[in-house]
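User: Hi! I'm working on a homework problem where we have to compare a predicted structure to a textbook description. Could you give me the structure for the chain below?
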Amino acid sequence: NNMQYTPGLQGKFKHDGCIYHHHGHYFAYGQCGMHGIAPVIYALTGTVFDISENAWCNMRSVLLALRFQCNMLDVPIVFSGRHPTGKTRLDIIPFKYFALSAFEKNDYEFIPVYLRLMGEPRDKLDNKLMQIGIDKETIKRGNQSFPMACAVVHRRNDWLVAVKGFSKYIWGSEIYLENNLYGRYRSYGTVEIH
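Assistant: Happy to help. Predicted structure tokens:
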């Protein structure tokens, strides 16, 4: 149920691939959740406890959107929530276990995504995916809007441009007493080049 698209500003998955927490597109919390659930999805693949095809496709959509929004593993500051340090990285663990699940389902379209993000193999599971003989994906190019993030990302070659705004529904910045003192204006039409 947590992998169904939710309406409005409620948490979890959105139709445009955004992942919501605190009523906005938020990498930090979304990645933590997928970091924990992706190995479980892989472990349950092909069993009577396997998740529904709809839930699996929704998670795939979100992972592909997150991959498009990042330059390799670098998360643009405009998507970094209340931690605008420039140190937020894309967590590849969900991609790894989702690729393994895809392999078990004979879906070879997602595996190249992980192979590009992986770089060098780190363990037996990485080697298992490498031995399939599929090439890593080429860098995705083009322009994609993410209405639920009030953002647009343009990719070309090995760089991207991210532009984020806000609306009366989507907040511009999440600010607490001791957090995000300097990220207040990251959604005021900021143009970020990676």
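For your comparison, note the following. The chain has a mean pLDDT of 90. The chain has five helices and seven strands. Good luck with the assignment!
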